[in-house]
Amino acid sequence: MDVPGLAISLAFSGGAFVGGGWWCLRRLTQLRFLLDTPTSKIRSAAQGYTELYGLLRELPQSQVRGPLTGKPCVWWRFKIEEQRSDGKQREWRSLESGSSDAWLELEDATGACLINPHGAEVRPSTREVWSGKQRHPLRVQQQNRLLGLLNSGRRYRYTEERLHAGEPLYAIGEFRTTGASQQGFDPAAAQGAVIREWKSDFAGLLQRFDQDASGQLEDAEWQRVRQAAATEAAVRHRQAAAAPARNELRKPSEAQPFILSSKGEDELARGFRWQALAGALFCLGGALASAWLVNNQL
């Protein structure tokens, strides 16, 4: 019995079983969130996990451009690969990759919402792939002829994906509206928050309210602290209420999908079903292969 070979085969089949099962469950869970979360209008969206659909708008003074093509956009993702050969086969190895951290703005008929793309599964419709002989296609390289000849043997593949202003966008994530005008005011909680903030600088608190310089706050002095904190909390609330509401969508704090896609919900759901099926087949294949190896090799 070839024990090392059996161990390697079991590792592959077990990996297919575990990985396929995990992928199937992941896509089914995401599919459930997509189908169970109704699409909301931005103006009337409830606070919390929300699904939105609208058009991307370019933010004022935004100058986002694709790093490999230089084309204007509102979000990008890129990858640079180099073709390498060991004499028998050629393969592409990743050299650089990255994605934009610029905020997006989604607009529907009722309002606008800013989106922080950090942590999102972004699925853009625009994807360009091409190849060349320079590592960075936009970088101006002043090379002499000899260096150009030395570089001619290398081959690079570039991939750039982009979202553009005016394109439709499906977004699902954590929706929050900031600004006290959109939130209830709890005087006791706001007062407590101010007092905790002041207590973090206790020396400053003593300097302001310790009138007898005893090094501690007596009952009467604590009463003045509470009165001043209540006044400060009310002032902060009025200032926040005067500011316009700001809608934001970001990555949920819980294990819920955060997806930004140029494709609609129906197309996403169809893709998730097929991917879940593929994961289930891998899981089943890994289980059958493991069972066959155990029964026939041991």
UniProtKB/TrEMBL annotation:
Q: Domain E3 Ubiquitin ligase MUL1-like spans what residues?
A: 82-179
Its transmembrane ranges are 6-25, 276-294
Q: Which InterPro entries match?
A: EF_Hand_1_Ca_BS (IPR018247), MUL1-like (IPR022170)
Metal-binding is among the record's keywords: yes
One Pfam family name is GIDE
Q: Which reaction does it catalyse?
A: S-ubiquitinyl-[E2 ubiquitin-conjugating enzyme]-L-cysteine + [acceptor protein]-L-lysine = [E2 ubiquitin-conjugating enzyme]-L-cysteine + N(6)-ubiquitinyl-[acceptor protein]-L-lysine
User: How does the entry describe its membrane topology?
Assistant: Multi-pass membrane protein
Q: What is its main location?
A: membrane
Query: Is rRNA processing among this UniProt entry's keywords?
Result: no
Instruction: Give UniProt keywords alphabetically.
Output: Ligase, Membrane, Metal-binding, Transferase, Transmembrane, Transmembrane helix, Ubl conjugation pathway, Zinc, Zinc-finger
Which cellular component terms (GO) are annotated to the entry?
Answer: membrane
Location(s), subcellular: Membrane
Q: Which residues form the signal peptide?
A: none
- Protein name as annotated: RING-type E3 ubiquitin transferase
Q: Which GO terms describe its biological process?
A: protein ubiquitination
GO MF terms on file? ligase activity; ubiquitin protein ligase activity; zinc ion binding
Quote the EC number.
2.3.2.27
